[in-house]
């Protein structure tokens, strides 16, 4: 595996991000959605870079006091190599304070993602019925509360 660098996502990364996004999701985000998220000053948006290519990315926004993990995806050719793990670890390294809260929605059929989130301490907190418009699939709502780390 090539060395993996995790760094801030920038506007110039977005063409590559959109290409991965289209391979990763049945209903991908548009370029405009990524631009909007990147423009939010309180968000944390990260890129995973290997051999100068974007192999994964993560978009996390802060609403009120809660972090919302809005999007995370890895190139289908680079999965199961720890890329998403590295992105999430970097997020927690940057944002975790004792009591900090994170939430996300995930398709109930998305076992790989659910297993990954559980490994990171996310727990199911209910279901939003028919949340995904494309196939009316339910969303599992997950939460994580950071424990133990004091403000830097
Ligand atoms: C979910 C996703 C981001 C995981 O990315 P990844 O880089 O392959 O994940 P990692 O290699 O860091 O895996 C971390 C852990 O997640 C779990 N996991 C990941 N893929 C899995 C799979 N296919 N089946 C079961 N568990 C899986 C495992 O516990 C894994 O640890 P392990 O490899 O040591 O067993 C990737 O599969 C993806 O892009 N999926 C499509 C987009 C998506 O569904 N995003 C989430 C939307 S909510």
Characterization of the model:
The protein is of the alpha+beta class and 152 residues long. The chain has one domain (5-145): Gcn5-related N-acetyltransferase (GNAT) (Aminopeptidase), CATH 3.40.630. The protein has helices at 14-24, 31-38, 83-95, 111-119, and strands at 5-8, 44-50, 53-63, 66-74, 101-107, 123-128, 139-145. A 7-stranded mixed beta sheet has the order 1-2-3-4-5-7-6, with helices on both faces. A hairpin with a 2-residue loop joins strand 2 and strand 3 (53-63). It binds coenzyme A. Coenzyme A binds next to strand 4, helix 3 and helix 4.
Quick structural summary:
The protein has 152 residues and is of the alpha+beta class. The chain has 4 helices and 7 strands.
- Arithmetic mean of pLDDT: 95
CATH superfamily, called what?
A: Gcn5-related N-acetyltransferase (GNAT)
* Helix and strand element order: EHHEEEHEHEE
CATH architectural arrangement: 3-Layer(aba) Sandwich
User: What is the radius of gyration computed over CA atoms, rounded to a whole number of angstroms?
Assistant: 15 Å
CATH class: Alpha Beta
Number of helices: 4
**Count of beta strands:** 7
Which descriptor suits the 3D outline?
Answer: globular
What's the topology here?
Layout: E1 5-8, H1 14-24, H2 31-38, E2 44-50, E3 53-63, E4 66-74, H3 83-95, E5 101-107, H4 111-119, E6 123-128, E7 139-145
Parallel strand pairs: 4-5
Antiparallel strand pairs: 1-2, 2-3, 3-4, 5-7, 6-7
The structure holds coenzyme A (COA).
């Amino acid at each position: 595996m090539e060395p993996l660098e995790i760094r801030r996502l920038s506007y110039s990364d977005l063409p590559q991000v959109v290409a991965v996004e289209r391979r990763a999701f049945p209903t991908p985000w548009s370029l405009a959605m990524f631009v909007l998220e990147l423009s939010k000053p309180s968000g944390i948006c990260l890129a995973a870079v290997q051999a100068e290519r974007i192999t994964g990315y993560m978009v996390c926004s802060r609403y009120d006091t809660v972090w919302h993990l809005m999007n995370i995806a890895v190139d289908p050719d680079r999965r199961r190599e720890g890329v998403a793990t590295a992105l999430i670890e970097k997020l927690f390294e940057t944002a975790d304070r004792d009591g900090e809260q994170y939430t996300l929605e995930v398709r109930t059929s998305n076992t790989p993602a659910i297993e990954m989130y559980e490994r990171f301490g996310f727990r199911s907190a209910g279901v939003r019925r028919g949340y995904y418009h494309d196939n009316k699939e339910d969303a599992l709502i997950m939460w994580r509360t950071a424990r133990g780390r004091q403000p830097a």
